[in-house]
Amino acid sequence: MANKFVNMTVGGAITPINVEDVVAVSATGRANNAGAAAIIVMTYKNGSTMTFSTGTNLLAFTVAYEATIEKAWWDVIIAALATPWNLPVYPSLDEVWAYTFLPASQGSQYVRQSATPTLNTFEAKQSQPLKVNNAAAPAVQTDLVIASIAIA
Which residues contact 85 (CB under 8 A, 6 or more apart)? Predict the structure, then answer.
C-alpha cells in the first residue's frame, strides 16, 4: 500500500506530510511572552518523529490550546486515512488542509433546548477554523501558522 499524505502549508509553501503509521501527536504551547515557538510532534510507528514549529511570540499558541491542537491534528490524520486508497493526498493534490477541527462529539443527536427535544443543527457539526490564543498577546485569537518542520 502507498502512504497517505496531508497537504499542509509550512513556511508559506504547500508541503505533503506523511500521516501513515502515526502513533502519537503531542503539542507544546508556550507561556505568555515566552519568546519561543510552540511545537507539535508527530511520532511514527518506527519511532521517528516530525516536529512542526510555529513562529515565535505572536504566532506561538499557549498551553491552554494544546488539547485543541492535538485534536485538530488527529482529525486531519483520521480524515486522510479514511479517504480511498486511489486518493493518497488529503484534501486533494492541489489543496491544503485548512487547519480546522471537528466539534466535540455529542452524547446524543438530540439537544434539550426546551421542553421538546430538537435535532442539532447541521451547522453545529461542521468543522471549525483552528484559532489559537497566541503566547505574546493572550487575548488575541490567531490562525495556527506552521513556520518550519524538522524530521528526526
Answer: 1, 2
Helix/strand/coil for 51: strand
Q: Model confidence over 4-20: pLDDT tens digits?
A: 999 999 988 999 999 99
Domain range list for the chain: 5-91+111-151
Beta strand pairing call for 89-90 and 5-10: parallel
Predicted TM-score (pTM) of the model is 0.78
What is the Rg, in whole angstroms, of the alpha carbon atoms belonging to the chain?
Answer: 17
| Cell (9 digits) for 41 | 510532534
**How is residue 114 written as a grid cell?**
426546551
Q: Any idea what DSSP says for residue 69?
A: H
**What dihedral angle (degrees, nearest 10) is formed by the CA atoms of 8, 95, 102, 37?**
20
91 preceded by cis ω (within 30°)?
yes
